[in-house]
């Protein structure tokens, strides 16, 4: 009985992580999704890596869908000194987040 309830709790945790805090891998579609933007695949990949590693140092990884595409650049700006991001790193993170959001919107 005890084992079963532990399993249920674990399963719920896994499922909720998957659905609310999914950080999708970069696809070539993302690189072409935003017209007029010049974020290539390498930049998007770097942005994802930076996001996953640097934005989790002080709090849980922010949920991409929680903030709008208009809000994200300002959020990353305000966090960039905390995460000690170089300007290019900040740009890569914003590019990745916007590419994910554009693909889904
Ligand atoms: C050195 C610690 C630190 C790092 C690194 C950091 N943050 Fe934060 N973050 C905070 C603190 C502290 C808060 C809560 C206080 C605040 O909002 O100013 C916060 C709040 C947030 C919020 C909630 C803001 C809101 O208005 O609800 C988001 C989103 C966020 N961070 C995103 C990021 C992203 C994206 C990165 C990576 C670029 C990042 N953080 C890296 C310390 C950090």
Topology of helices and strands:
Blueprint lengths: L1 H19 L7 H6 L7 H14 L17 H9 L6 H18 L1
Helix pairs in contact: 3-5, 4-5
Helix content bin? 55-70%
Name the beta content range. Answer: under 5%
Count of helical segments? Answer: 5
What's the rounded overall pLDDT mean?
84
Low-confidence stretches: none
- The tally of domains stands at 1
What is the terminal separation in angstroms?
44 Å
Assign the structural class, choosing from mainly alpha, mainly beta, alpha/beta, alpha+beta, or little secondary structure. Answer: mainly alpha
Instruction: Describe the main β-sheet briefly.
Output: none
Order of helices and strands: HHHHH
Bound molecules: heme C
Q: Measured on Cα atoms, how large is the radius of gyration?
A: 16 Å
- Broad shape: globular
Number of strands: 0
């Amino acid at each position: 009985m005890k084992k079963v309830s532990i399993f249920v709790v674990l399963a719920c945790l896994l499922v909720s992580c998957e659905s609310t805090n999914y950080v999708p891998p970069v696809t070539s579609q993302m690189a072409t999704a935003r017209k007029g933007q010049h974020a290539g695949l390498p930049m998007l990949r770097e942005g994802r890596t930076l996001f996953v590693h640097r934005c989790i140092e002080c709090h849980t990884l922010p949920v991409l869908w929680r903030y709008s595409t208009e809000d994200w650049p300002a959020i990353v700006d305000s966090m960039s000194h905390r995460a000690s991001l170089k300007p290019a790193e900040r740009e890569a993170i914003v590019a990745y987040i916007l590419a994910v959001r554009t693909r889904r919107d």
